[in-house]
Specification:
By secondary structure, this protein is α+β, with helices and mostly antiparallel strands. It is built from seven helices and 14 strands. Helices cover 25% and strands 26% of the residues.
């Protein structure tokens, strides 16, 4: 069984100070995709990952303390691909991929548009470019799990208050339409494949005691290419893990 977990840690140094390594030991993912690491490997004691059996690959943003992705893995990849080859996104450290013998795993941190119109325009351009990038990539790597913070709730069930958030970045009609088209193009939302229940979220605002009240958004996904459907065994969200304003999301596949 291969256990893949995606986790936006909102600063890996902060998450480590809250017991991330002990959690990793207990959860024991084969592949851990991190987003928003906000650090370079030289700013972190990486030995603590190596001591519990992980190789680690980092793709930080050029801007200090911002964005960035990493992948920790128990198994040596055949190939590591840093970035997507589009400079403005690669400068922000948004895409990192590892290829294994019979599948690939990508850690992706999609842009947020919540800071203003300029970033929303950037986000929409990213969505268009990323979709094209993935279509091209899947000609070479058809079996892929694209894990990460998509910064979009897909459906009303994925957000605590769909009505009042209808015009909020992350739940805009055009973003949700993009995510619908993306899944229709050949991906399975692994969590919804197994779980159709409401009130399952992966991110909570720091404001208004949102997490305690479970007023959240489900914006973190393990999207699995359709050709791996029969390999899917389980998916879960772990809201009890509290190293970040996000929580880890898991998918298990049997190869």
């Amino acid at each position: 069984m291969t256990k893949i977990i995606s986790y936006n840690v909102n600063g890996i140094r902060s998450a480590l100070s809250k017991g991330l390594v002990n959690w990793m030991k207990a959860a024991s993912p084969d592949v851990l995709c991190l987003q928003e690491i906000k650090a370079t490997p030289d700013q972190v004691d990486v030995k603590q990952f190596e001591e519990i059996g992980y190789q680690h690959y980092w793709y930080p943003a050029q801007k200090k303390g911002y964005s960035g992705v990493a992948i920790l893995t128990k198994h040596t990849p055949d190939h590591i691909e840093y970035g997507c080859g589009i400079k403005k996104y690669d400068e922000e450290g948004r895409v990192l991929r590892v290829d294994y013998n019979n599948f690939s795993v990508m850690s992706v941190y999609m842009p947020s548009g919540s800071s203003g119109d300029e970033r929303q325009v950037f986000k929409m351009q990213w969505l268009s470019d990323f979709q094209q990038y993935i279509q091209d990539l899947m000609k070479k790597h058809p079996k892929i799990i694209i894990s990460g913070d998509y910064n979009i709730c897909h459906k009303a069930i994925d957000i605590h208050n769909p009505v009042s958030n209808a015009n909020t970045s992350g739940f805009l009609p055009e973003e949700r339409e993009w995510l619908e088209n993306y899944t229709q193009s050949g991906f399975i939302d692994s969590f919804r494949h197994f779980n159709k229940e409401p009130h399952n979220y992966s991110w909570w605002s720091f404001r208004a005691n949102s997490r305690a009240k479970n007023l959240g958004w489900r914006i973190d996904y393990n999207m699995v290419s359709k050709n791996l459907e029969e390999n899917l065994k389980r998916a879960a969200i772990f809201p009890e893990a509290r190293h970040s304003d996000h929580c880890p999301v898991l998918v298990e596949l049997d190869f």
